[in-house]
Amino acid sequence: MTSTTSGPGAEPVLRTTSLAKHYTLRGRGRRRTVRAVDDLDLALVPGTVTAVVGESGSGKSTVAKMLVRLVRPSSGRITLDGRDAGRMNLRAYRKDVQMVFQDPFASLNSVHTIGYHLARPLLNFGRARRGADVAGKVRDLLQRVKLDPQFADKLPHELSGGQRQRAAIARALASEPRVLLADEPISMLDVSIRLGILNLLGELRDTDGLAILYVTHDIASARYFADRTVVMYAGKVVESGTALEVTDQPAHPYTQLLISAAPDPQRIEIVDVSRASSGAASAPTDGCRFRDRCPFAMDVCRQQPPDVAVTPSHTAACWLRVDESQRPASGREAA
Amino acid sequence: SSSSKGENTTATGGNGSAATSGSSGGGSSTLTMVVQPSGPLTRNFNPFNPNNAGMIQGTQAFVYEPLVQFNLAKTGQEYPWLAKSYDWSSDGKTLTLHLQSGVTWSDGKPFSASDVAFTFNLLRKFPALNTSGIKAVSATAKDPTTAVLTFDHASFVDFYYIASVGIVPEHIWSGIADPSTFADPNPVGTGPYLLTSFNQQGWEMTKNPHYWQAGKPTISNIRVPIFNSAPSATLALGQGTVDWAGLFVNNIDTVFAAKDKQHNTYWQPGYSTVTIIPNLEQGKPLADVAVRQAVSAALDRTQISKAATQGQAPPAASATGLVLPAQETYLTDATKQYALTPDVAKAKSILDGAGYKMGGDGYYQTPAGGDLAFSLEQPSNYADFMTDAQVASQQLKAAGIKVTVSGVSVQKYTSDITNGTFDAAIHVGVSGTSPYYQYNYWLNSAFSAPAGKPAISNFSRWEDPATDKLLTQYASTNDPKVQATAIDGIAQVMATKLPVIPLLYGAAWAQMNTKKFTGYPTADNPYMLGWPVSPSSEYTVLQLKPAAG
Amino acid sequence: MKFLLRRLGFTLITAWAAISINFFLPRLMPGDPVQLMVARLQQQGAVSPNAMQAMQVAFGLDDHTSLIVQYFQYWGQLFRGDLGRSITFYPSSVSEVIGQALPWTLVLVGVSTVISFLLGTVLGAFIGWRRGSWAETILPLSTFLSSVPYFWMGLIVISLFGAKLGWFPLSGGFDQGIDPSWSSDFVSNALYHAVLPAITIVLSSVASWILGMRNMMVTVMDEDYVLVAQAKGLSRLRVLSAYAARNAVLPSIAGFALSISFVVSGSLLVEIVFSYPGIGYSLYQAVNNEDFPLMQGIFLIITFAVLLANLVADVAYVLLDPRTRQDA
Amino acid sequence: MAETSDRPATDAVDDVLAGDRVGGPVPGAAADPLVSEPADPGRPRRRRRTMSGKFVAGLVILGLFVLMAAIGPLVAPYDPSNLGPDVLAPPSWQHWLGTTGTGQDVLSQLLVGARQTLIIGVLAGLIATAISTIIGVTGGFVGGIADDLLSLLSNVFLVVPALPLLIVLTGYLPNGGPVAVAAVISLTGWAWGSRVLRAQTLSIRRRDYIEAARVAGEPGWRIIVFEILPHVRAILASSFLFTVLFAILTQVGLAFLGLVDVSQWSWGVMLYWAQSADALNAGAWWWFVPPGLAVALIGTGLALLNFGVDEFINPRLRSNSLRGRAARDSAGGFTPVVRTDPQPSEVQR
Amino acid sequence: MTISAGSIPVTTRPRAGDPVLEVRGLSASYGLGPDAVRAVVDVDLTLRRGEILGIAGESGSGKSTLAYAITRLLRPPGVITAGEVVFRPADRPGGGMDLLSAGPAELRAIRWSEIAVVFQSAMHALNPVLTVERQLLDVLAAHRRSMSRQARQARVREMVEMVGISPSRLKSYPHELSGGMRQRVMIAMGLILEPQIVLMDEPTTALDVVTQRQILQQILELRERLGFSVVFITHDLSLLIEIADTIAIMYAGRLVERAPSAFLFHAPRHPYTRGLLASFPSLHGDREKLVGIPGSPVDLRHVPSGCAFRTRCPHEMPRCATDRPPLALPVGDPPSADREVACWLHDGRQPPPPSLARPAPAARPEYATAGTSTIRDTRAEQERS
Ligand SMILES: Nc1ncnc2c1ncn2[C@@H]1O[C@H](COP(=O)(O)OP(=O)(O)OP(=O)(O)O)[C@@H](O)[C@H]1O
Ligand SMILES: Nc1ncnc2c1ncn2[C@@H]1O[C@H](COP(=O)(O)OP(=O)(O)OP(=O)(O)O)[C@@H](O)[C@H]1O
Ligand SMILES: [Mg+2]
Ligand SMILES: [Mg+2]
Fold first, then answer.
1. DSSP codes joined into one string, C9-61
2. Per UniProt, which keywords does this protein have (chain D) (predicted)?
3. Residue C6 covered by a domain
4. Which of B238, B307, B407 is opposite residue D262, by nearest beta carbon?
């Protein structure tokens, strides 16, 4: 499993091995297991942005929440600097790994000032001492996200969506983390505000060497801003590579579908996706999960495809990428 | 099979009644009576059960008659009833009852001495039935009209209880396996009325055609409605739908009398003594007789009576605790002087004399230090007692005694006075054919108990051999003279030592609407207490006549 | 299913806890029933000090088994369906006493609660629907009525419509002269007697239903699906019934189930004031007389009524709101 | 009655009342309704908001009563317990509200009784709200078996009949002073509020800002106290007001039954005395009516205030200011056309 | 290797229709009086038969308010304060009907059967306690009284099949369906009566691109068949450019620009439009740093005098502060361009800055727009200028 190995020179700070999360749903007597995330290997490298794209419900948020330890993984390991995260003190862990929640309107407590929101992690993680020190640090944080220091006294509702989003980022930065998990931080905003946020995150990566996980639906923004892109489908990573490789030369049929479906004013013809109809809810749980919707589906797709390197930095989990001779004989062919 | 017997018999009674007058009632020959707001009752007429409907609403003796009726309005007066007469052996251990002849049970069977003997033996056999505490050793029928009861100790004073027991028919009750759980839904007795219908709203009775007193009763139907609260009963009384009631009616003149000046009358003499019971245990503020005397001297009982009951419960007139004027005959030259007149100066001088010093806060200080103070306890939901206490506390404040009025739940009140965990409490006495019964109730050391243990009735915990001796002296003789001396002795103890402090007289609440029936007892003709409580209610109802016109 | 089982389990534990409390609570009250009874009898005149003993025997209170043993005996009795004998109404059994009182309460308080619920819900739906119209003036008025102490209103109503105007009987559940039966005479008589108490109950409880429904209506009216229903050009009535009120009534239904407990226990003051024969008054008597068996019996009824109502409300909720079927 | 909302309704509003709902607030509708009206006096930059008429009316009514409780005993013309010579006298210049059956001054009792009534009400409200907050919010936040046990506890208290509990407890409390009565009432009155708060907490505890606070390293108790409580404060307020009303009514009912110490003046105690003296029957309405009316008014005041709080939790509950046809249209799902701008040029057809 | 087979023939779109909906001087606000939020101010719009009219703009600029005001579905405290909305049904040639003066009965009759609305979130737009089928049948029951039960049921089945949902799911409750399915149910519901106008308010925001596209595709196909007109509101300008015929841009409650979508994309005339176009990253070409529009959105309660955008506008002139620019054909564009802009840069008094004066791509044939142009390489140019 080498899908997301680090770039040359840099050691990943946060790394997952075979991470999985299964939810059990109870309803009308029968139990159903939702494999929200399966067998995930991910490495976040300082100074890089890793984008996670994929269909709704493919487990992107679950990954982020597992990484910040809000959701307990069903199996697998998370390591921070090689240490098992599960054994680490939660506070110590979160000092290094912070998350920006998807919705800037919901993730700031409306009763507290922005200053309070920023001061709390500073104090909790021992980054500042009570008193003038905190106020100064809060000011610094606000400046880092390009907010005027007077915002410290404002309440969330007095801020625009973009400003809130910045405040949320500032809060995540308060503990001086090395990993920032940003879950769809821009989905609620209009295009010009979106851009401001992305540019800000990009700067943080460049100046602070942050490792950023950027969860999004917006492939164009991933291409614009991320160093690496990971494509998820039904809880599994189907493709990963540099952002440009993945968007410009998608290797997995699902990625191709995704990219062809992305709105693009410069497109020549409108894409027909009607065939790719069924939703992820009914995706098979073994083998290639995309096979029911895949125009190239083969019998062999009933087995889990390996991650195949397209280029050294680009892998896709698809049997199409495996030389025909090397594909295992599928059960039916054998029979 | 016992119950079917009962039903059969009443069916007969019912038929009989249907012949005389319709049970639908409402006519002028129906008397509606209410003793108290009781809430819905169950169809239980077992006379030995203190909660039976007949007992609660005063109709028990309409069915189960006593041997003798006592006039509590005039001490010593009694009326022969099922027993024409009676004699005591001189040692008080044998009671011979001479019964009426020609009495029949309402099912037509003849009444005889064996029914009387059976009744008393029943009480012996089933202690649970013996709720009047009669201690007969044996009961036999000597002949059809003579019954003999024997006791192991002089039982003169128990005659009041013995003669009040309702006599039940042997032919029915002997067939009942466990009479203590027998609800007796269709009672068969010798009395003037038969039960005709019963439901949650009350019951109706109709005249017993076989009744042994010739020409009686004159009223053909009795109706007993049920009320849950005094105000709704009072409303009905004011509206004229109730003829005879035993309610405490506040502002009785406006609420009742004025509504029909011609017919609405009341006569509510005292029959017992409401007292302040001091806790006499060592260390309690009222253990000091001087304090009790001061308290008694400082109280203006007339004001209390006015405030709490508009004077309806008359102020106690004698420190002896005697109910005046009913027990006037027991007043002697020695005890006449103990009339109760408010005298704050006297109260203060008593306290001064006893070594209490007036403190700067206007209250006396106890020798041990601290205000001379006690709390006066009564149930919060006894409004009249609460007023009594509040007024008393104001009056005692003027005398330098600090009284905290403490209104508590009935449950706590009962438990406190029983177990002696109180300073002082307002409490009602008991009735009786002579002052002995109250004195015995208050002062007999046999009914006392050490602190923390439940006392039976001597709640102030008065333990005085002299008093006990006097009580025994009274109980062991039938000689009115000796008895009177004993009473006088106790009365003097009462008046000087104040083991309980008389406050008011417990009035026998009685309201009468004479529109339909007349002949109720009055102050001028106090042949009975006016209230519709059994068994005297039976005597009274038989005296009533349809109003002229 | 699992949800229901779990609910059932918790209901059982709650029942156990409540029944145990119901057993011990009365016994924690100061005093004992015989003392109270003697005290009560004494007020009426003759009572011999010797009577205490007899009464102890009569009511089986002379036996001094420990509380814990009694507790287990009580459970034994319960499982046999035996509630024991009432002390106040001795020798009637507790079930008899309850059986005599409960129907009245169920009918009077039950029917008025249902009327109040229906009236309040309909009014609330209307007011919520017609926000800002004159209908809203009902709100402060009904609020005032609901803040009036029950018994106070009852007494005023009695003195006005009963004593002054004579339109309605002053007290009672029916005329004493008519025996309870299903005859039209009796039923109409009983209804006539029920008017004033019912009006009192309805007036003082309707406001909460109006308010609850109105608030839910206003909230639901703001839901997108109501807007969609309106956008769909559905008739006013259809939008109101199938979309707005249908959804808004759900919380009220849960509340209604809970108010069932009030039917049994909350009727006391009404029953006192109107001298209405019912279970509330029986409970009051039981408490006043420390009639443990009767108290326990009535508590048991209340406990079961509340728990059952809760369970029914849950089930009703599940039936009426498909969303709850999924998770919860 | 200017009812215009100055901020849009958001989904967060819904969540408060209708339980959790998926989906975030509408973009552009930025304000969280729970905040725009800062309840903290200390909070800077208070936003102006037209208070609802009901709220103001409730405030005025309650203000008057609080004033009465504060200065009542000082301005009472007589000692309320003093027995006067005029018994059952109708209102007159000497006795504005007449006298009782023992010649006490009704007005003085009313004035003096206000304090006890309010103290018990408010105290019971406070205690009950405190218990329900601790049990409900903690249960809702902690979840799991602790939650199960805590909700079991509140369910049991919902089930256990109040009357005997009250009698037992009053039996144990020395002399039933206001604190004792308040404590007893609150013990029977906390369970309902606790359920409401628990449900509310359940819907809040998975909100993003709570999760975010966890990520920011906040310990559990701080999350409860500083993150959750401020969001249920409107519900707390409303449950508090409701409990106060409940406590006053219960207190009056208890007094009516003679279950409190009736030597301490409160309105319930006045009613007790009036009732045991059969005042209505005796025609002494001036004795019976005022305390009940006072209770009803105070209840109305509390309920009106509660409306205000409700409307504050959920701005939609405010009645709108439209009248007549516009109101009817709006109720029927047709946006009213209220032409305030000059009519644009005629469209050619 | 890419999956992009089977394009929709875009050339057979209906001819430039006559107006089906005319909005004149429409104003709507939340509340009345000085505190009112004037969310839509004096908007003029024309929707033609078969046209897809896209509306984009900043969050809170009044897009949804406009859509709801047209159908009079604005919630309290929303009120319409001025204007006319004339609906010209196909079967009533010449005659128009002013929705703002129509009575409830008239409105109820045309609602949904003529003008349907697909709401922003299907999540909340379906009644959670009724089955999907009931809610679909409701519409038929209200508007197709004469239809038999069976016919109605058949119609419902037909419609859900058309949007790609198995009729077996009809008995489901909304929460049992995925977001995409619910959205499709809403669309089926919107089209079940074959209305003349469908208003869609951000119908796909919460969905991933594949699902979003599936839904859009269905709408477009249906429009081809049925010829209805669509008003499509979204933040996603790139999507709009792809599917809309005409795009209107709103800012602070007003329309600031309206143009055929190709024109708008290639040759925006309003600085705000240009700012928007420069803010979304491309799927192609080099990665370049983009800069958004400086400043923050206006508060609708305190809209700046004159041009509301001036405080964020790089080309602000003195007169922008005093006079509000009217929505008018930009000077320099031929009337046939059928475009309007509200900006003083285009009143002919001064040459507009080059970035706002780019020539339109080509003469535009009817409504065939973005889909048919070859524009792949123009993007780079646009950025460079
Ligand atoms: N608490 C939960 N219980 C049960 N299932 C859950 C839970 N949380 C998430 N899921 C399921 O797990 C899967 C992954 O959810 P997740 O939120 O991670 O998706 P996502 O990729 O973030 O989707 P979106 O793009 O819509 O945000 C979904 O099918 C979802 O229904
Ligand atoms: N109920 C309301 N009360 C007051 N103001 C409101 C209300 N609803 C919306 N607004 C305000 O009206 C303005 C226009 O809202 P509208 O919903 O039309 O914007 P929008 O363009 O659809 O925004 P978005 O893209 O975020 O959906 C916004 O500023 C919003 O804050
Ligand atoms: Mg997500
Ligand atoms: Mg919108």
1. HHHHHHHHHHHHHHHHHHHTSSS-HHHHHHHHHHTTS---TTHHHHHHHHTTT
2. Cell membrane, Membrane, Transmembrane, Transmembrane helix, Transport
3. yes
4. B407
